[in-house]
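User: My collaborator sent over this chain with a note saying "see what the structure looks like." That's all I know about it. Can you take a look?
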Amino acid sequence: MCRNTHPLFYLQIPNTCDCKIYDFTLSLLAKIKLQDMSKKLYSLTDKMSDLICDNYNLLQVMSRFGLPLGFGDYTVEEVCQSNQVDANTFLRVVNFINKGHARSYANVDHISVGSLINYLKNAHHYFLDFQLPSIRRKLLEAIDCSTDNEITFLILKFFDGYVQEVRNHMNYEDMNVFTYVENLQKGIKDVDYNIDMFVRNHDHIDDKLTELKNIIIKYYPHSKKAYLMNAVLFDIYNCEKDLASHNAVEDYLFVPAVLQMEKDVTEQAKMIQEIEEQESTNTEKKETQDGLSQREKEIISCVVKGLSNKEIADQLFISIHTVITHRRNIARKLQIHSPTLLTVYAIVNKLVDISEVKVNL
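Assistant: Without extra context I'll predict from the sequence alone. Here is the result:
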């Protein structure tokens, strides 16, 4: 369960219940908790087949990491390496799910965010293109459309509306969140977005399946195809559990890993800026007779050629902040505050050829 609990922990024991039943319930809950705590923590040297035999739900994890069946007696590390999958990331997800999504096992050390994104994208593909369409087909088969019953049509309408919400939710993550993180991996930080914005708007799409289950369980009319509707309910329960697990991986593995990336990228950018400012200071000490450093002359040349601050920064491999600082120093030293006068200065001092000038005199 995504909240590290078991459904039976929500049992409400009436005050009038028999003490023996109460004691039995407590004993059962204790056994369930003990089973969750005693589940194995897998390592790289364990056989991949042991993972599946111990917990068949991990088949979904394998599939979403792109690991095929037929791995014989090879270890987790060997199977992952042969399929170019980051073994540490695979194990982090496996152990987190196997331990009932306990946050104490949400370890993001040595996680490959790229591998985790591939896992989440494949999960989206599974839900949208396989599991939910499969449930809808079974739902159509189970619903008795021959009777004029509004409940049957309400169920289908509710399900279709829910699927659209899931699609919108996952498309947003694919196109916005994952793109943002992939740019982070390249060292590019979007100043208008951060992972906290995703967290604040990350609604758990598995919750609404509860409403659909309640409609079916409480109000679906008697039908000769009851066994088909029971099969649909079973699939919905499994889908709900799978979506909850998916949300837990996003909340407790993906988000913390991205938060660490954001911190690293910010610190790296700060270090680069400090280095550039130090280089700028060192360059200032080597000023020529007219009071301008070589870097400042390069900036002037770029400005009169019509380049923007961003284009200058890209061409000279410095930050926009450094470009702005240089331009401020140039204006102060030359007492020139207009593009036209700066262009004249550049031509007279042979910093540019008149044919390169983009500013109209």
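A starting point for your reply to your collaborator: The longest helix spans residues 226-284.
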